[in-house]
Amino acid sequence: MTDPTGDQTRDVSIPRRASLELLRAEAADELAVVIHERLLGGEDPWDFMEDLPSVDELVVLTLRAENIAANGGVRPNSSRHYRVLRQIALEYPALTPTVWHLLGDAKAYRRWDAVPQADVS
Fold this sequence. Notes:
Distance between the termini: 50 Å
Shape: globular
Structural class: mainly alpha
Number of helices: 5
Number of strands: 0
C-alpha cells in the first residue's frame, strides 16, 4: 500500500509482529520478575529454577498463547498444537530448536508444559 506521495505504508489491518530480539527481551524481563518474586517469597532457587521455562521457551509459549487468544480462547488439540508451533518455527527460524524440543516432550513434567492433555471428562 502506498500513500499519496508514493511512499510505502504499513497495512494497519494486519497486526505487526515484534522482532525476535524484542520478544526475547520481554521474556527475559518476565522471567527476572518471576525469579525475583519467588526469591522475595523465601523460595530456594535450587528448588524452582529447573522448573522455569527458558527465555526462548517463554517466547514460544507467549506466541502460542496469542494464537489461542486469536482463536477465541479455544485450547488447541494435538494436531492444531503441532501446526501452531510449526508456524512459530517458520516465522522465527531461530526458535526452531526450541519448538522441536517442546514438540518432542511427550511427557509433561513441568507445570507450564504446552503439551495438550487428553480430556479425562
